[in-house]
């Protein structure tokens, strides 16, 4: 991966700050099956900028509608955080780490596609929405997981 | 490919971390090279050989499977 595409090392802390709480909150609210929090009222004229169900098409009188922001906030935080974690430089960004980065990216794409294949076969109808929800995050999650496993966890098990 | 980095390190009595610092890579890279898990680039191989005061071919040798 080209060095030019990587952000400076100092962004990594922000990456963790965005990812970890969002990850925990996301799982928590998902298990509760309740994302109806932090709701705001959207005025009618915003229908030109936001696409929310019938708010856009069946709303000639420009009636307002409600939008609950919790899931959006968690998703944005998680995605932005994972992006930062994935594409910031390590302190020493050398050739071996670039190799690990490439391999982890390959893992992430292949594993994600294979998992999706399996789920498409076995899950149908409404529950598939859950698959799609998780699938938004799994490529980056697998990449970050594998990358940091090789860099931080695996050396602890080696006898060197 | 085999290498004699570990032996050469012992001759100079330096650790993986010290060698890594001299050639400006991370310690894990040196570890991966020693274990045969990673083949260094030409530049890095030349730098490592230079630290040991040897030619590249004296530190790295091709094996049959390469």
Spatial strand sequence of the major β-sheet of chain A? 1-2
Give the CA-CA distance, first to last residue of chain B. 7 Å
From the spread of the alpha carbons, the general shape of chain B counts as globular
Helix segment count of chain A?
6
How confident overall, as mean pLDDT of chain B? Answer: 91
Quick one: how many beta strands of chain A? 2
**Unreliable sequence segments of chain B:** none
Order of helices and strands of chain B: EHHHHHE
Rg of chain B is 11 Å
Beta percentage of chain B is 5-15%
Question: How do the helices and strands line up, and which of them pair or pack?
Answer:
The complex is a heterodimer of chains A (160) and B (66).
Chain A: H1 11-32, E1 39-42, H2 54-57, E2 65-68, H3 70-86, H4 95-122, H5 127-135, H6 138-157
Antiparallel strand pairs in A: 1-2
Chain B: E1 2-3, H1 5-12, H2 16-23, H3 27-34, H4 42-52, H5 56-59, E2 60-61
Antiparallel strand pairs in B: 1-2
Helix pairs in contact in B: 2-3
What can you see in these coordinates?
The complex is a heterodimer of chains A (about 160) and B (about 70). Chain A is mainly alpha-helical and about 160 residues long. Chain A has helices spanning about 10-30, 55, 70-85, 95-120, 125-135, 140-155, and strands at about 40, 65-70. Chain A has a two-stranded antiparallel ribbon with strand order 1-2. In chain A, helix 1 (about 10-30) runs antiparallel to helix 3 (about 70-85) and helix 4 (about 95-120) packs across helix 6 (about 140-155). The longest helix of chain A is centred in the last third of the chain and has 28 residues, at about 95-120. Chain A is globular, with a radius of gyration of 20 Å. The two termini of chain A are about 30 Å apart. The mean pLDDT of chain A is about 85. With about 70 residues, chain B is mostly helical. A two-stranded antiparallel sheet of chain B has the order 1-2. Chain B starts with a strand and ends in a 5-residue tail after the last strand. The interface of A and B includes residues 95, 96, 99 and 155 of A.
């Amino acid at each position: 991966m080209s060095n030019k595409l990587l952000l400076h090392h100092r962004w990594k802390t922000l990456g963790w700050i965005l990812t970890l709480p969002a990850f925990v909150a996301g799982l928590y609210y998902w298990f509760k099956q309740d994302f109806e929090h932090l709701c705001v009222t959207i005025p009618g004229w915003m229908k030109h900028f936001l696409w929310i169900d019938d708010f856009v098409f069946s709303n000639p009188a420009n009636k307002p509608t409600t939008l609950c922001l919790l899931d959006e906030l968690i998703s944005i935080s998680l995605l932005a955080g994972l992006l930062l974690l994935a594409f910031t430089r390590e302190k020493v960004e050398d050739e071996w780490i670039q190799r690990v980065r490439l391999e982890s990216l390959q893992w992430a794409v292949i594993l994600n596609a294979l998992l999706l294949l399996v789920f498409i076969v076995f899950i149908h109808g409404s529950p598939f929405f859950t698959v799609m929800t998780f699938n938004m995050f799994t490529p980056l999650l697998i990449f970050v997981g594998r990358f940091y496993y090789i860099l931080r966890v695996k050396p602890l098990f080696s006898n060197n | 490919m085999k290498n004699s980095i570990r032996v050469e390190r012992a001759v100079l009595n330096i650790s993986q971390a010290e060698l890594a610092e001299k050639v400006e890579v991370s310690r894990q890279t040196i570890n991966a090279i020693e274990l045969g898990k990673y083949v260094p680039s030409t530049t890095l191989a030349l730098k490592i050989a230079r630290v040991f005061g040897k030619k590249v071919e004296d530190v790295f040798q091709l094996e049959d499977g390469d």
